[in-house]
Task: structure prediction
Amino acid sequence: MKKIVIAIDGFSSCGKSTMAKDLAKEIGYIYIDSGAMYRAVTLYCIEHDLFDPDGNIRTEALRQHMDEIHITFRIDTATQRLHTFLNGKDVEEQIRTLEVSSKVSPVSALDFVRHALVRQQQDMGKDKGIVMDGRDIGTAVFPDAELKIFVTASPQIRAKRRYDELCAKGQKASFEDILHNVEERDRIDQTRTVSPLRKAEDAILLDNSNLTLSEQKDWLLDQFKRVVYE
Ligand SMILES: Nc1ncnc2c1ncn2[C@@H]1O[C@H](COP(=O)(O)OP(=O)(O)OP(=O)(O)O)[C@@H](O)[C@H]1O
Ligand SMILES: Nc1ccn([C@@H]2O[C@H](COP(=O)(O)O)[C@@H](O)[C@H]2O)c(=O)n1
Result:
C-alpha cells in the first residue's frame, strides 16, 4: 500500500490530536503533535527567564538560545502515549498547563522559531507514513500532503471539551479562562505574519461540533482509504 502524508490542521482544542493519534494507530503511521514542539519551546522560555516581567518575550535572547533547544518524542511503553522531551526531560505534563497555553501563541509567531521547528517537522515526514497535526501543516510544512483535513467546532464546544478533560484529570480549571485562552490563541494564530492559521485550499473541512469520537474516527479512516485506494 502506498504511504502518504496526512496533515490535520484547525482551531485550538477542536480534536485534531485525538483524530491524528487514532488514525495513526489504526493505520500504523507515525504520529507527530507539532503543537507540542511550540509548547516545549515556550516551557523552555519560562524556565530560562526569557519572558520579561510584563510577559513579553526576550526575543533576541531566545534567538541565541534556539540551538540549545532539543525536542524529541518517545512512546511511553506502559500507556502507548507519545511523550514530548525537552533536552532529554519528559515534559509531557508541564507543556499542557494553562500557563504554557497562555504564552505559546506569541512564541510560535516568531519567524526564527517557526523556521527551526518546521525544518525538523519536514525531516520527520521525509519517508512519508506520517500523520501530523497543527496549524500550518497543510499550508507550510507539507504543502504537498496527499490528505489534508481542516477541523473546526464552535469555541464554546471546544472549551467545554477541554474543561471536561481537565476536570476528569482532577485538575482545577475555570471554563471562562479556558474559553478565553481558546479564543485568544485562535486570534493570534490567525493574524500572525508567518504561516497564519488558515485552511489550505485543497483541505477538506470538518466541523466536528456534533460528531462523537467514534464518528469522527470512522470519517477520517474513510478519507484515508479514499486517497490510498483511489
Ligand atoms: N468529537 C469529539 N467529541 C467530544 N470530545 C472530543 C471530540 N474530539 C475531541 N474531543 C475531546 O476534546 C478535547 C480536545 O481534543 P484534542 O486535544 O484532540 O484537541 P486539539 O485540537 O489537538 O487541541 P490543541 O489545539 O489544544 O492541541 C479532548 O479532551 C478530546 O478527548
Ligand atoms: N503547527 C503549529 C502547531 C501549533 N502552533 C502553535 O502552538 C500552539 C499550541 O498548539 P496546540 O496544537 O498544542 O494547541 C497553538 O495555539 C499555536 O500558537 C503553531 O503555531 N503551529
Q: What stands out?
A: The mean pLDDT is 96. The first strand starts at residue 5 and ends at 10.
